[in-house]
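Lesson 9: reading folded outputs for more than one chain in a single document. The general rule is that every protein is listed as its sequence immediately followed by its C-alpha cells, and records are never interleaved. Here is the first one.
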Amino acid sequence: MWRIISDELGNTECSGHVNPSEVHAERRSHGVDSIHPEDRAPTHPMLEVTSLGKRFPRLDVPVLRDINLSVPSGGFVTVIGPSGCGKTTLLRIVGGLEGATKGKITVDGEPSLGPARNKTMVFQHFNLFPWRTALSNIVYGLELQGVSEDERTDRARHYLDLMGLNRFADHYPSELSGGMQQRVGIARALVVEPQLLLMDEPFGALDALTRERLQTELQRICAHAEVAVLFVTHSIDEAIYLSDDVLVMGTRPGRIVKSISIELPRPRWTYDVRADPRFAEIRTQLWAELEVELREGTEDLPGAIE
C-alpha cells in the first residue's frame, strides 16, 4: 500500500533476536549511506523529499546529508534517532521554517520550500496564546486566512468535539491540563485542513497515561481527516504504535540508515497491539538499529567507553 524508503539492505523482515554488532557489520559492507526511494505500490505521494542536505554556513558542518523520504496520502511515517541527529531540523525544513542547502521538497506534487497552507506543524511545547480561549486559539489560523467568523467557529467546534473538548471551549490555557493544551494545539493544526501534518515530539512533555491516550486519539483523528503525517519521536513504542513506516536516522551527519515497515493491523486501538509478538520483534529490531547509532555517536568523544 505504501510508498516508502528502502536502503541497500532492502526492507527488513523482523526476527526475535537482532545482534547490534551484526547490524553494524552489515551496514558497513553494504554502504548504508546510499538511500533510495522504492515503490511498494502505486500510491500517490503527498510528501516527497529528495536528496535533501543542510550545512551550517559559518562552520561548514554537515547537518543533514542525502535525505530521501516519501509519505503517501493518508500515510503515517515516523522519524526516530538519537538526540542531535537532525530530526527536528528535517521537520522544520519540510515545514518551511528553515532553509536547506540542497535538495527538493514537494507536497502534493508541487514544490514546497516555504510555509504553505497545505502543511501545518505541531510542536512539543504547546505554544498556545495565553490570552485566547481554547476556541479562540483554534481559529487563529483561519483568521489569518480570512475565513468568515461563522465558518471558522463551526470548524473549530467540530475539532473541539473530535478532541473531546467541547466543555472547555471557553477555558484559557492556564485552566487546561497539559494533555488538553496539546489537544487544542492539534485541533489548531487540523482545523485549517492541511494535506500534511508535521509533528515534532508532540507528546514528549506529557505523563505516560496522557501520552498513550493521545496516541490513540491521534490515530482516530488522522483516520477521520485522511491527512498525511510526518512524525518525530524518541519513543520506540510510540513509533511502532502510530506508524506505517519508521525511518531510523543516523548521526554526523543526519541521514536515514534504515526504513522498517510496521505490518500490524489497523485500527490498532481495537486490540492490545503491544501484546502482539510482532510488536516485540519490531521493537527489538529498532533498538538494535538505534544502539548502533548511539555507539557510533560516542566513538570519537573524549573518554568514550570502548
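And here is the second record, again sequence then C-alpha cells.
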Amino acid sequence: MRTTIILLVLVLCSVSVRAVDLTLSIDHRMQGEALQAGTTYAMDNGAWYFKPRFVKYYLAEITVIHDGGKRTPLTDVYVLVDALGQKRYPLGSYDVTNVEALEFHVGVDKPRNHLDPTLYPSEHPLALKNPTMHWGWAAGYRFLAVEGSAGTSKDVVSADVQVHTVGDELYRKITMPVSTTPTSSGVEINLAAEYSKLFAGLDVSFGLIFHGYGEETIVMSNNVATRVFSSPTTSVADLSQAQALTVWPTPTSGTITVRSDRDVLAHAMLVDAWGSTRILPVSQDSHNAWDLTMVASGTYTLVATTTSGSTRHVPVILLR
C-alpha cells in the first residue's frame, strides 16, 4: 500500500511540470517604422534613403534563460528569419515558466555550416531555399543577407545594395533580456529588431555590393551583434524611460557609471564586437557603477534594461 502511494505521488509530481510552447516574435523595424518591402526609408536624418527588398538571417544555438537563471538549450533548433515576411517562429515545447533572457547566435554553427543542405527536408531552415541562402559546402550559408536600393534623394533610389555575410568568422553571439506574452498554449518571447542599425559605419548611399568575408561584412556582423536587437519598447513612456539613462564617462580607462532618472535597472551587460557578453551586477539604486579595469581595451556596447522593460544600447570605449 505504501509503495502504491509513493508511486502515485511520483506520477503526480512528474505530470505537474508541464511543457509549454515557446514562440519567438520579432518586431521588424526600420527607422522606428514597421519594415515593409518597397517602402523607402529616410536614413541618417535624410542624408540618404533605402528601399529594402530582401532581409533574411539565420539564428542558431538558441538558449532560453528562465526561472532564476536556469539555462535550457534548444537542441537542433534553427530559425531562418524573413524580416519582410514573417514575425513569429515556433521554437518547440519546454519546461519553463518565466523566460528572462534569450541567448542566440546569428549565423549557422560551424559543424552544420558545411554539411550538405540537400540532406534536410524542404521545410527545414537549413534546406536549400529559393532565393538561395547557401554558398556551397566550403563557404557554407549566408548568415545574413540584406538587399535593396539606395540613393541620396527619396525620388531616386536606384543604387543596388547587396550585403551577404559569409564565413565562420562572422558567427555572432547575442544575449538579450526579453519580454514575454502569454498565449493559449505557452509563451511568446518578444524581441525588437531595428535594421537601420545594420548600416552603422557603412556608406551605402551610392550602393554597395559585397558577398563574403571582408571589411563591410565584418562591420555589419558586429552591428547585428551589438546594435540591432533589443527588448521591445511599446510606448512613448517606455522610450522616455530609456532616454532617461545616463552613462559616463566614455571613453573610460576604468569605472563606468549608469544613472537612471525615472526607473531602476533590471539587467545590464557588456557586449564585445564578437557578441561575447559579460553580465554586470545591478542594484535597486538610481546609480550603478562597474569597475572595468580587468576588461581588455576596445569598443563595447553596454546593454541596459530597466524594470519597465526599456532597453538602451550605449557604445563604450575602454582605453588603457
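What the second record shows: The chain has two domains: 15-230, 236-318.
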